[in-house]
């Protein structure tokens, strides 16, 4: 495998992440036009043979401000409550200094050496090996470690894991990932509501053809948006893991220690409390076993790059 310098890798990953994040609002606008086209196409008389695009543009001009306003409102609410939701979803709780001075010393030493403010430290009561960082600002930045990873890694390996999570905070990765999670959640919520409404309409004896057309158009757009936004989110997540590994190696000057930690983590990363990929992508390794029939699909929808590749990159340094 060809060696790639840390700075080069950082520039590449940051550039790609910015491009992908900018594509989210573009996707919302594109889907608004798709929704407008579906609404006009499903409602007009096909025998007329008229050009429907002026009507599509006119309809889009009316609905896009409402769509963008709704997305913005959802985004603001979800953005600020996300940290609390993540804490509950992972079952993490604050780790007191007196409970584990070793962890606090490792975190404090790394923060002082790199000019960072000390984040909060949480613990997940699980014997498996995993860790994640979350938060949107210095007040809420948190590193969460499982009980298993604290017990089963030596000091150098645990330092590498902590440095990896600190680099996510330092490079604002956690904020970036939360933004991507919120955008995907918008499409998932719309698709779910559309399915439910269609189910209720289908059980009704009343003729509601216009409403069915509207809900069906919303559902199609939401599913398309969910598919493409999920691909973008997972691509962002994979790239940021490579960047965090490189930054951790730079922080600790012990890339092989982090490689050793990743080897141990790969044997038992499963955290029982984690049930969805929205939370799973925050961890240093995916905390749930996943199986998929085709390897190409597995790579497209993976929240993390293959851990073997991450280890191989670290061992180049």
Question: What does this entry look like structurally?
Answer:
It is a single chain. The chain has 317 residues and is mainly alpha-helical. It has one domain (6-314). The protein is 68% helix and 5% strand. The chain has eleven helices and four strands; from the N terminus they run ααβαβββαααααααα. The longest helix is centred in the C-terminal third of the chain and has 44 residues, at 209-252. 36% of the residues are buried. Mean pLDDT is 79; it is low at 291-296.
Kindly state the percentage of residues in helix.
55-70%
Beta-strand percent range: 5-15%
The count of domains is 1
Distance between the termini: 12 Å
Q: Helix/strand/pairing class, anyone? A: mainly alpha
Strand order of the largest sheet: 1-2-4-3
Total number of helical segments? 11
Order of helices and strands: HHEHEEEHHHHHHHH
**Whole-number mean pLDDT:** 79
Low-confidence spans: 291-296
Main pleated-sheet profile: 4 strands, mixed
| Approximate shape | elongated
Strand and helix layout:
Elements (H helix, E strand, L loop, with lengths): L5 H38 L9 H38 L1 E3 L6 H13 L6 E5 L6 E4 L7 E5 H6 L2 H16 L2 H30 L6 H44 L2 H13 L9 H4 L14 H6 L6 H8 L3
Parallel strand pairs: 2-4
Antiparallel strand pairs: 1-2, 3-4
